[in-house]
Amino acid sequence: MSRFLxxxxxVAGLFALLIFLFVVTKLIQPGYGSGDFGSLARAVxxxxxxVAAQTVVVIAGGIDLxxxxxxxxxxxxxxxxxxxxxxxxxxxxxxFVLAMGLVLGALNGILIVVTRVPDIVVTLAMxxxxxxxxxxxxxxxxxxxxxxxxASVIGTVPVPGLxxxxxxxxxxxxxxxxxxxxxxxIPLRRSRLGLSIYAIGxxxxxxxxxxxxxxxxxxxxxxxxxLFAALGGLSLTISTGIGAPIPGPYLLASVAAVxxxxxxxxxxxxxxxxxxxxxxxxxxxxxxxxxxxxxxxxTAIIEGLIMVAxxxxxxxxxxxxxxxxxxx
Length: 328
Fold this sequence. Notes:
Elements: H1 2-28, H2 34-59, H3 67-82, H4 90-115, H5 119-137, H6 147-151, H7 164-167, H8 172-189, H9 192-202, H10 204-209, H11 214-240, H12 250-260, H13 273-291, H14 296-321
């Protein structure tokens, strides 16, 4: 137990904070129940995939400013393709959109590796390119989503052996999130590729001298980020039933959740569990502010200030942990 707390103390603290926020929510609104938790899980879904996309590249020592724009492009692409199409056609749309995200993410990585331009510049440029492409696909929110896809995030999952009242606290959106993340993250984390991603994020030169293929590892990290971003775009379309060409507030939220989740902005440290719990914490804070009838504009200001403070704290920790004499 003590070893777990020593290794996962930050994540355990975040989980305790999440439980505390649930208690506060229950005190604010005594009627808060399983249905509200299901709504929270559906709201968290696109944020969680955006955070997963950002986490992979941050661990690899980079950052991706195009995550939200990539989500918008994949969302409108999926919504446009499914608009007026048969239910079965969605079986083709889903893998197409995921492959699209994988390719766009790999393109980010290739541009960074080949041009040697800093990732923050390349992904910022891609942000504008993808945002423009999303508006070309759909000039305004529209399109449609297959009914069976929408049903995949609505309702609960019956668990054998559990009573109905316990099943009500297992929303499909949460199960879908856990399954998707586990399918990609667990094999990656235990593979040689996963170790290489951590190695180039920790010390790129040392990784290169140890025989790690730095360039291809970085490209794969960005490709995986694109895959998670595409999952985020798909979840947006599934949750709302339409595609939205304007990127939502997922970029800053993803960076804030990554930092709050214990991932070092300098790379090489952290995991996926902490950032996912951090997303729930940030969304629950917003829920509590809404339940307290705080003005929506003030809520947005408070939420933004929290995110900026978290990101600045992460940058400060990164600067403090950098060896003396290292290049900024």
